[in-house]
Amino acid sequence: MINGQRVIVVLPAYNAGRTLERTISEIPAGIVDDLLLVDDASGDDTLEVARRLEIPFVVHSINRGYGGNQKTCYREALNRGADIVVMLHPDYQYSPKLIGAMAWLAASGEFDVVLGSRILGKGALAGGMPVYKYISNRVLTALQNIFLGLKLSEYHTGYRTFTRKVLETLPLLECSDDFVFDNQILAQAAQFGFSIGEISCPTRYFAEASSINFNRSVVYGLGVLKTSAKFRLHRWGWRRYPLFEPHGRKLSAMESVA
After folding, report:
1. What span, in angstroms and rounded, lies between the C-alpha atoms of 245 and 90?
2. Quick check: 119 and 154 in contact, CB under 8 A?
């Protein structure tokens, strides 16, 4: 626990059998109260590795997508009594050693959302991020800072920490089940007035690390632009979107995993 708050690390997994143990081995001791892996119908030995490591897990019988996986992660973490939820990819792309720092920032009350930024510090290119992804990251981030009125170094990291209040308040069931979920949840956090902090996080790109291909990246980029446009139209009062409405569907209305 940190400041009397229960910390749970959620692991949205899809074919993470080759990297799961390495990821778990670097999680700092004495900080995390619980782990939870959500397997999105993997076709490899992810569940066998999880069983061997004695990691609690939930299994999707069909692939629900990256966003759908996160929805289950957060709903189950709240059900398990989490006050602080850290999402860590089990593909070893982000450093598990920073869990403590991210959780402390949230538990301190200074930030409601904490992001592990690949752009701050050493930078993503040093970690092997493809140049086209780096350029698109910078361009999309600049546009989003204008549309959302924030000053973040990046919106596209998969390393995130949320307080319980954030996950209970945001209408997350209005978000996509695809990769653009990552972007939508940050736009929602901005709309609902939650504070967002960042720390520098080294990143690793290697064969076993998950990464979307060029075509999926284009779809994601278009989804980011669409989300930003909806945010601004909603903020101006020109259009209303359930994605940004207090009465939008929340995790508490989510059906059981099957």
Report:
1. 32
2. yes
Architecture of the domain whose range is 7-239: Alpha-Beta Complex (3.90)
- CA 243 from centroid of its chain's CA atoms: 17
Report the length, in residues, of the chain: 258
pLDDT for 204: 74
**How far apart are alpha carbons 200 and 182 in whole angstroms?**
18
> Which DSSP helix (H) or strand (E) runs through 13?
strand 7-13
d(CA 191, CA 194): 8
Measured distance CA(186)–CA(156) in Å, rounded? 10
The pair phi, psi for residue 142, each rounded to 5°, is: -60, -45
- Report residue 1 as tokens: 């626990």
Query: Three-class SS of residue 116?
Result: strand
pLDDT at 203: 81
The model's pTM is 0.93
Q: What is the pLDDT of residue 210?
A: 55
Residues lower than pLDDT 70 in the chain? 122-124, 126-127, 205-213, 256-258
How high is the pLDDT of residue 129?
72
Task: Please compute Rg for the chain using Cα positions.
Answer: 17
Residues 6+ apart with CB under 8 A from 208: 18, 19, 91, 92
